[in-house]
Write a structure and sequence with these properties.
The chain is mostly helical and 156 residues long. It has 7 helices and 2 strands. The protein has 2 domains: 70 residues, no CATH class; 75 residues, no CATH class. Strand 1 and strand 2 form a beta hairpin. The radius of gyration is 30 Å and the shape is rod-shaped.
């Protein structure tokens, strides 16, 4: 059993520290730094270790709660659904996701051979305008484009 001295005056035994904190610091400096970090003024009593335990637990608990919140509420990316329809994984980075969507839709559009597939991809482009926030008035839908217009616009 060893003693840890803080500020050259206050002494704590390793067994006492372990019983309150569940671990023992490697040296007195670590214990002193822990007291400083949590703004606890050492007095040499077990109450110091109790306060330190509560402060450390509170900080740890807050970190765990934040991690759980982030896991349960992943970042909502408005364009994730439209990206998923063509096999693009949305990252949340607007520029990267928008470029990846455009690259994928262009590639898929080039392989479209019938009017139905072309109309589907044109519809996805319209949805993307809304999802990526490029349309100020989502309720004002554009008229479907003709096959000739589609070829000129998307297959060139």
């Amino acid at each position: 059993m060893s003693n840890f001295t803080v500020n050259g005056v206050y002494s704590y035994t390793s067994s006492n520290i372990y019983s309150y904190l569940g671990r023992v610091p490697t040296n007195s400096r670590e214990l002193k730094d822990a007291f400083s970090k949590y703004d606890i003024t050492p007095t040499g009593t077990a109450d110091d270790l109790k306060k330190l335990n509560r402060a450390m637990y509170s900080e740890y608990s807050a970190q765990v709660q934040e991690q759980m919140k982030n896991q349960n509420n992943p970042q909502v990316v408005p364009w994730a659904g439209i990206c998923a329809q063509i096999g693009v994984q949305a990252t949340g980075d607007y520029e990267k996701d928008f470029a990846a969507f455009n690259d994928a839709i262009k590639l898929l559009s080039q392989s479209a051979v019938d009017g139905q597939a072309m109309a589907y991809f044109a519809g996805l482009r319209s949805e993307a305008q809304i999802a990526f926030g490029l349309s100020n008035k989502p309720e004002a839908q554009q008229q479907p484009i003709s096959f000739e217009m589609y070829k000129a616009q998307f297959l060139s």
